[in-house]
């Protein structure tokens, strides 16, 4: 199972606010029942099958274009651990146990 951190930024929209774009991207995630996700103030974290996540990110990347953006910058960070099962919750618990 992979954990992916994602940030999608529309450019050239005429406004510094992007919350409408973020909300529309999250509507795509809400339809993906196989994926877990967490919205953060600076991006989104998605957990699940890597191929499914990447397919979903492609759909999300298109949302700002559909809303009129002429340029979109998408940053993706992938944690794909294969020696053991991991999750967002497990990663947090591991750090909290050491505090």
TrEMBL record:
Superkingdom of the source species: Bacteria
Annotated protein name in UniProt: MTH1187 family thiamine-binding protein
Family classification: Belongs to the UPF0045 family.
Region called Disordered, residue ranges: 78-99
SUPFAM superfamilies: MTH1187/YkoF-like (SSF89957)
Gene Ontology CC: cytosol
UniProt cross-references to Gene3D superfamilies, sorted A to Z: 3.30.70.930
Thiamine-binding protein domain mapped to chain residues: 4-96
Taxon lineage: Bacteria, Bacillati, Bacillota, Clostridia, Peptostreptococcales
NCBIfam families: MTH1187 family thiamine-binding protein
């Amino acid at each position: 199972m992979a954990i992916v951190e994602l940030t999608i930024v529309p450019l050239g929209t005429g406004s510094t606010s992007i919350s409408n774009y973020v909300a529309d991207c999250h509507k795509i995630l809400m339809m993906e029942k196989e994926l877990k996700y967490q919205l953060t103030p600076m991006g989104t974290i998605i957990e699940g099958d890597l191929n499914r996540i990447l397919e979903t990110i492609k759909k999300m990347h298109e949302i700002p274009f559909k809303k009129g953006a002429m340029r979109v910058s998408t940053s993706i960070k992938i944690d794909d651990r294969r020696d053991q099962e991991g999750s967002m919750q497990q990663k947090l618990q591991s750090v909290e146990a050491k505090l």
